[in-house]
Each structure stands twice: as C-alpha cells, then as structure tokens.
Amino acid sequence: MRYQISGRHIDIGEALQTHVKAELGETVEKYAQRPTEAVVVFSRNAHELVCESTIHLSTGLTAQAKGQAAEIYAAFESCRERLDKQMRRHKRRLRDHHNRRSEPVEFGAGASYILAATEEPDESSESDDMLQPIVIAEMETKVPEVSVGEAVMQLELSGQKLLVFRNEGHGGVNVVYRREDGNIGWIDPRNSK
C-alpha cells in the first residue's frame, strides 16, 4: 500500500509517520485485503489538531474519516477509530450482499469531463461560442452495474454526495444522491417508449 502522510502548516516527524503507517496498515489489513493508497493529512483548526484520512481500495471504494483532538496522536486515533468502524461496516455489508450475489460486480467504462466555469455573458456579445463549455480535462471513470440497494451502500460507505450506476435490474443508468435532509434520493430515468 502506498502512503502519503503530510501536514498542512504543521511539521510532522518521522515517529508520527511510522506510527500512522503501522496503525493504519493494521486496521486496513484487518478488513480490506487489497488497499491501494492511503492519504493522511494533519492540520490545525484553532486550538485543535485535525487528522483527515482517505483510503482507496482496489474495489473502487473510498473510505474517508476525520478526527479532532488537542494532541496530534489523539487526533489520529480518533480518525483511525472512525475508519475502523467504516471498514467493519463495509466488510459486513459486502459479506451480506455476497451471500445473495452469485457473480462479481461488473464495471463499465464511462467518460468523465471537467468543464471550465463560465463567466456571465455580456448583452452585446451573444454568440454560439459562449453557449459551449470549455473542456479542461477528459478522464475515464468506472460505472458499476449493481442493484439500487448496493448503490446506496456504496454511497454511504464512500461518503460521496452522488453515485452514478447501471441498474442491474433493467440495465439503465441511474443515480443515487444524498439529499440535504439526510435521506437518499434515487433517479431512475427509464426510457418509456
């Protein structure tokens, strides 16, 4: 596993980095057999120290956690405990879903684009070029083919606000998203012909 441990406006020593690698490696190995990368960032928020961790798994899932405390080691332990809880839930849910699933999850390829922010157009310079967004970057992203329940599980575990997936029930592209009221929304634009 590749580690990226850094401090934002604070210095972190070699002892802390060794401690983070040992503890985080132990936690991740307990629940996920194939982690690929761990990013840990320490920072200061007023009088508290903050530890933010992101772990990328080979399954495409990303686990994120944040811990705060007066001391840097305590902030990391708080963050590690949250990651431990997320990973334990993830493993339990996967085990429960795999009992019902006979085949592994398939991923399809999809295009992902980053568009430049648009400026307010002038009244005098209205042209067709202003209506076309500028593409800054093109990437390929993985779109899983899962059930709605599994998509909601992945959304909750990853901590993201939105997940695009292919519904294995009918093959259409669907979206699940986190609403402002804390509930989960589901968009299913089936083509009715």
Average pLDDT number? 80
Number of strands: 9
Nearest-angstrom radius of gyration? 21 Å
The strand order across the widest sheet is 5-6-7-8-9
| Tally of separate domains | 2
CATH fold topology of the largest domain:
Double Stranded RNA Binding Domain
Order of helices and strands: EHEEEHEHEHEEE
Question: What amount of the residues lies in strands?
Answer: 35-45%
Instruction: Specify the CATH homologous superfamily of the largest domain.
Output: Ribosome hibernation promotion factor-like
Question: At CATH's second level, what is the architecture of the largest domain?
Answer: 2-Layer Sandwich
- Tell me, what's the shape? globular
Low-confidence stretches: none
Helix content: 25-40%
Largest sheet: 5 strands, mixed
**How many helices in DSSP terms?**
4
Overall SS class: alpha+beta
Termini separation comes to 49 Å
What is the CATH level 1 assignment of the largest domain?
A: Alpha Beta
GO molecular function, one term: ribosomal small subunit binding
Family: Belongs to the HPF/YfiA ribosome-associated protein family. Long HPF subfamily.
Protein name: Ribosome hibernation promoting factor
Subunit structure: Interacts with 100S ribosomes. Associates exclusively with 100S ribosomes, which are dimers of 70S ribosomes.
